[in-house]
Recover the amino acids of this structure.
């Protein structure tokens, strides 16, 4: 099964926002990533606009719809009323609900479904009526996918930072087993499987081997870091190749 590569461009927006200047261009580099073979673009517009700004959301929407209609637009965020209004206007292909607080620097855990099922179910129903696919950001726990399915999710995105931050062989294997079991539970529940966070050229092949039915990975930090040395087109190609190899 082919796994789609969605390039998260938040880091590009962070760099742009350090100055009152229009570069580096979020839309320009997103276009370059798509021209280089990326299957989609991911953004996470936060309330304080510290990286992706509201106007970026709609500029990128126009880019994808007008120039790359076959590619995916994925928007991540906490399902607040403001966020739901934003994505209802932008109409991305996929929305990924994350449980981030407004002041979090980055996502660092998945949803507690037992305490948030009603919130997620209501938000999911609203977006699915508009034809938007919904994914829930979850931890590597095989007990969670069935709860996601009950709340209406189409997909889950497994939080892979514990795996990405493991360097000892026993820890790597421990997290790979958890990821594999979570992927199997998701497939058994009838959910498609995404993954993201701290994924790299080095750890992608083993993840794909553990979850061969992986539909999509969303990668930002490592990919943009590699692009500083390799260039963005070569980096996108390298990540696509890593997704086709087996670790």
């Amino acid at each position: 099964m082919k796994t789609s590569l969605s390039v998260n461009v938040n880091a590009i927006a962070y760099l742009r926002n350090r100055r009152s200047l229009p570069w580096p261009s979020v839309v320009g580099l997103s276009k370059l990533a798509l021209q280089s073979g990326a299957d989609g673009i991911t953004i996470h517009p936060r309330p304080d606009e510290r990286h992706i700004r509201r106007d970026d959301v709609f500029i990128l929407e126009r880019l994808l719809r007008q120039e790359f209609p076959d590619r995916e637009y994925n928007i991540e965020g906490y399902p607040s009323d403001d966020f739901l209004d934003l994505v209802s206007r932008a109409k991305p292909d996929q929305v990924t609900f994350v449980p981030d607080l407004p002041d979090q620097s980055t996502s660092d855990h998945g949803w507690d479904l037992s305490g948030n099922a009603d919130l997620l179910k209501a938000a999911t129903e609203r977006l699915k009526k508009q034809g938007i696919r919904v994914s829930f950001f979850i931890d590597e726990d095989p007990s969670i996918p069935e709860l996601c399915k009950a709340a209406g999710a189409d997909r889950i995105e497994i939080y892979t930072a514990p795996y990405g931050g493991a360097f000892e062989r026993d820890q790597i294997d421990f997290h790979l087993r958890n990821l594999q079991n979570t992927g199997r539970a998701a497939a058994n529940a009838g959910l498609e499987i995404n993954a993201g966070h701290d994924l790299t050229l080095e750890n992608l092949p083993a993840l794909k081997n553990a979850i061969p039915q992986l539909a999509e990975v969303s990668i930002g930090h490592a990919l943009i870091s590699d692009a500083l040395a390799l260039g963005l087109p070569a980096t996108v190609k390298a990540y696509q190749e890593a997704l086709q190899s087996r670790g």
